[in-house]
Write a structure and sequence with these properties.
123 residues; 5 helices; 81% helix
């Protein structure tokens, strides 16, 4: 049942991301502007939603099945940046500040290196 819920909420997250992106394209918030506002908004809002779900699940009664469906499915479909933000926060909360700083810094750098490497392979 968990896999079905993840799939259903994943599709909802993907469609939500596409819908928000389409709403913002053509405005000053669109991806063609100076700043990629659409992705910035999606990542920020997705992290907010993931945090609400995460804190609700840990402080209130939300079953692990529904928590996983919403976090992995919906938020994962909407943006994987939310997982990055929550994992960084978790490291900070655990007092592992140097690991959090390293993870916070290296993740986007490593991702960009991956993009550059892929571009090099394809070119």
């Amino acid at each position: 049942m968990t896999l079905v819920l993840i799939s259903v909420f994943g599709i909802a997250g993907i469609l939500s991301r596409y819908g928000v992106d389409q709403m913002l394209i053509g405005t000053n918030w669109g991806t063609g502007s100076y700043w990629p506002w659409s992705t910035f908004f999606i990542n920020t809002f997705g992290s907010f939603v993931a945090a609400i779900i995460f804190f609700w699940a840990t402080r209130r009664s939300l079953s692990p099945e529904w928590s996983t469906a919403l976090l992995v499915g919906y938020c994962g479909g909407f943006t994987t940046f939310s997982a990055y933000a929550l994992q960084t926060f978790s490291l900070i909360e655990q007092g592992r500040l140097s690991v959090a700083a390293l993870y916070l810094t290296l993740s986007p750098i490593a991702a960009l290196i991956g993009v550059v490497f892929a571009r090099t392979l394809i070119s």
